[in-house]
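Most newcomers find our protein records easier to grasp once they have seen one. Read left to right, the backbone structure tokens trace the chain's path through space. Nothing more is needed to start thinking about how sequence determines fold. An example says more than a description, so a record of this kind follows:
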Amino acid sequence: MSEKIEVSVEVQQFGASASMGKAREHSVVMDRPESKGGENKGLMGGENLLIAFGGCFMSNLLAAGTARDTPLSGVRLSITG
């Protein structure tokens, strides 16, 4: 049986329209583009979400390749949502 892993993050306001997300010792700033009333301090939340989906998939794909003695390199994803 696999071990349950709990993930926790914090998000706080970072300026007039931006927010900063923190997980472990890492952080990311999210904001709207100026054309949408933001200050363009970072990616939009939806862009971060798509990156998160891609990063999760990529992490598992690379781990599966390694577990099967089939290391992968140069893998690239393009995600639209």
Summary: The CA atoms of residues 10 and 51 lie 18 Å apart. Helices lie at 45-67.
